[in-house]
Amino acid sequence: IDARAMFRVCRQLSMQAQRFPHLVTRWHDNLTGAKGYLAIDRIVDGLCGGGTRMMEGGDEELATRLARVMSYKCAGVGLRIGGAKAVIDFPHDHPESTNVLRRFYLAHRPLMRETYLTAQDLGTSMAQIEGVLADIDLDAMTAWDYQHPTLKDRAQEMITCLQQKVDGLPLSEVSSGRGTAFAVMAALQCQGKSVKGATVAIQGFGSVGAETARELVRAGARITAVSDRFGAVLASSAEGMDIDALHAPDGVIDTMRLPAGCRTDSNAHLLTLPADVLVLAATSHVVHAKNADGVAAQVVVEGANDPVTPEGDAVLQRKGTILVPDFVASAGGVGTYAAILNAGIPATEPRQVLDYVRRHIERTTQAVITTSQRDGCWYRQGARNLLEQQQ
Predict the structure, then answer these.
(1) Nearest to residue 386, comparing CAs of 228, 372, 373?
(2) Which residues lie closer than 8 Å to 84 by C-beta, 6 or more apart?
(3) Which of 9, 379, 365, 389 has its CA nearest to residue 184?
(4) Each residue of 67-116: pLDDT tens digit?
């Protein structure tokens, strides 16, 4: 690495270390003892956005970190809003959870009226959020209408578009998985490899993992392994498995009805398979200091939030593994918002929306890999450096 590149990287790291969130609120519910935090990482064009998460143990640090991740996602797909995240420390299945959510939103009503856009996250649903917001004369897109009064129709277009069917499924259910698949394809292209014939192992077979698999198969890749929370299914042949023949209601694979040429195995073994790409689309912290050295894939793509720990990062970096971070590879859902709200793609054209998502995720993935390799830094840090400059 030359002196100029080193200076550039050091300056970017210094800027990141000095940047604080735009705003963090702390809320306390006197009736239940619930605590809540709204972290606004930055505001762009008057707006910020991010989901509302309800979970026991959620804290200010989590809200702040996820808000920054949201800023990176928005930057990577061209969505002109800043990142934010609401976290409520309360059991999502408690009988009072909806009332707690209502009081949290009521306390933040001025921000939600003018600045903050929200959606579902862990422990909340869009139906629950919309019902609560209606009680206080708001909706999830009120702030968009406030900041862009001449573009109010795009908020309704957004709702309509997410309900449009693509290959038999609503766009809202396929966009994240398609985005992860686009990141896989771009990473392979950066290596000079064709998607056709590439081998891919996928940990997690929920909506993201399953749709990633389907899109990669359509592109000619071979899926050699998939898994759910109970274990893995491996293809006996290098030709891969018939993804459409897998029965996986609610993301759980029916191992009593496996397609021919498949066998069961463990999640731990899936991580060690010598595939071209390993997609982590299950849960957080699955690759860590104790097992990262066994990861055999040349490329790791994060379709879930935080699947690799910092200690796991260090091992993968030492091994020379290429990594596409979660805030790049899992930005497909955010990209649909960018396509409608900023690019103005008609709600009746969901395939044009996915084409927009493909272009942006492929471009960002390729830029992360090439600039990280040029600057001699780890891919996660390289992605942060790049996306800090794009908003």
Answers:
(1) 372
(2) 38, 39, 40, 41, 48, 49, 50, 67, 70, 116, 117, 118
(3) 365
(4) 999 999 999 999 999 999 999 999 999 999 999 999 999 999 999 999 99
